[in-house]
Amino acid sequence: MIGYVTLGTNDLAKHAPFYDAIAKAMGVGRMMEFDSFIAWGEMGGAPGVALTKPFDGKEATVGNGTMVALQVAGPDKVKEIYDIALSHGGSDEGEPGPRGDDGFYAAYFRDPQGNKLNAFCMTQGG
Questions:
Q1: Closest residue by Cα to residue 38 from 5, 85, 82
Q2: Where are the chain's structural domains?
Q3: CA distance linking residue 106 with residue 111, whole number of Å
Q4: Which PROSITE patterns does this entry report, sorted A to Z (predicted)?
């Protein structure tokens, strides 16, 4: 079972507010915090997301093909998270909407550092 997913950052203080805003909309906050690492979520709850300065001291880079998917309650919450992401310096990677015909509804965005995320829900069948 995944406890949390970690994304790299070169400026933790600058990029943490992006995740603070999304976590707040999802009903959680910071669950762990150190000088070089912050994790958002709830201990014992669903998997969380963490932002960290690389341990090796080298520059953080974005993983090509890497994405964190945030499961939410419904299409309205997908749009809310997407809007929050864009209003906090994120960039669009795919507006909210249905993907396919199996009830998968998602929006895609990048954080200010370039990490790709999505917010999704199942609207039927899934």
A1: 5
A2: 4-54+67-122
A3: 16
A4: VOC
pLDDT tens per residue across span 34-54: 999 999 999 888 999 999 999
DSSP 3-state assignment of 17?
Answer: helix
pTM of structure: 0.88
CATH topology of domain 4-54+67-122: 2,3-Dihydroxybiphenyl 1,2-Dioxygenase; domain 1 (3.10.180)
Cite the DSSP H helix spans in the chain: 12-25, 75-87
Pairing of strands 116-122, 37-41: unpaired
What pLDDT score does 2 carry? 76
d(CA 90, CA 92): 7
Task: Examine the pLDDT at 103 and tell me if it is beyond 90.
Answer: yes
Classify residue 87 by its DSSP letter.
Answer: H
34's tokens: 């150190």
